[in-house]
Amino acid sequence: MARETTQQAFAAAWAEGGLVIDVREADEQTAGHVPGARLMPLRSVPARCDERPADRPVFVICASGNRSRTAAYWMTSRGIDAYSVTGGTRAWAHAGHPIAAGHHEHAA
């Protein structure tokens, strides 16, 4: 089972420079995403999840929290300290947090 984090805990981690992986498709992320989120579409997570830095937690986000739970589960099963962000980008935006649009970053 994937571990989840609340929007409040995620906001605090994000403000401190937490690593955010957006598992939506590129067009979804380009339309609006958490600033600094790195793109890693869900279908690519099994093959690419080891690309992220190993020294800190990963906060996985999607539109509503469904895809991010799947991705966080895959990452956690590989020993990665991953958390699905409850409510996803929609809840983030609804709470009045900043949203970036346009160019996206690829996960590293």
TrEMBL record:
InterPro entries: GlpE_sulfurtransferase (IPR050229), Rhodanese-like_dom (IPR001763), Rhodanese-like_dom_sf (IPR036873). Transmembrane segments: none annotated. It comes from the Bacteria. Residues 16-101 form the Rhodanese domain. It holds the Pfam family Rhodanese. This is Rhodanese-like domain-containing protein. The lineage of its organism: Bacteria, Bacillati, Actinomycetota, Actinomycetes, Kitasatosporales.
